[in-house]
Amino acid sequence: MGGHREKDTDAALLRAVGDGDSAAMAVLYDRHAGWLHRRLTRRCADPEMVREVLQDTFVTVWRSAGSHRGQEAGGWLWTIAARRLVDARRAQERAARIETAPMEAVGAEHEPAVATPSAEERALTALEFGDVGTALDRISPELREVLRATVVDGLTTRETARLLGIPEGTVKTRARRARAELRAALARLDPTPMGGPA
């Protein structure tokens, strides 16, 4: 069953993982864990949570590899990881609420430390929900994916190509087009020239 090499496609590896091949799982992990970890770290300042989410992601891959359809695993893996991160944050928030509720009831002097969002997390939130987020939603999906991966998540061209299952040259071309479309979308949102009347 073993003998998997770097040149094996993600689809072939996932089929083998679906059949219970742990060697294929190891190759898949080595291929994708690095960029997934970096991308999760840009979304979450808690290194322990990032490690847990990464582990949960690959446990899910092990259990559900047989259900994957498509050539490259990058987008599928990121979808799993992003969902696991949301679940982990919700669980952490619930736990924090449970911990603080009894203390508030008895008037405790010291509140437990609650992780405050990092500057990067606040910036990403502004990107998701501000004018830039609105403009991103208005550009074509394939260009938006490249911008999110390269700018928001800070992935390299090679990592983005692997994530999206496209050639590196296509990543560069789409990144240029995406920036131009984003500028145009932002201009349509706020047509007032810089320095004009408020």
UniProtKB/TrEMBL annotation:
Q: Which domain of life is it from?
A: Bacteria
Per UniProt, the keywords (alphabetical) are: Sigma factor, Transcription, Transcription regulation
Supply the PANTHER family for this chain: RNA POLYMERASE ECF-TYPE SIGMA FACTO, RNA POLYMERASE SIGMA-70 FACTOR ECF SUBFAMILY
| Family affiliation | Belongs to the sigma-70 factor family. ECF subfamily.
Q: Which residues form the RNA polymerase sigma factor 70 region 4 type domain?
A: 132-182
- One GO process term, biological-process aspect: DNA-templated transcription initiation
What residue stretches are annotated with the RNA polymerase sigma-70 region domain?
28-94
Q: What is this protein called?
A: RNA polymerase sigma factor
**Molecular function, one GO term:** DNA binding
Pfam families tied to this protein: Sigma70_r2, Sigma70_r4_2
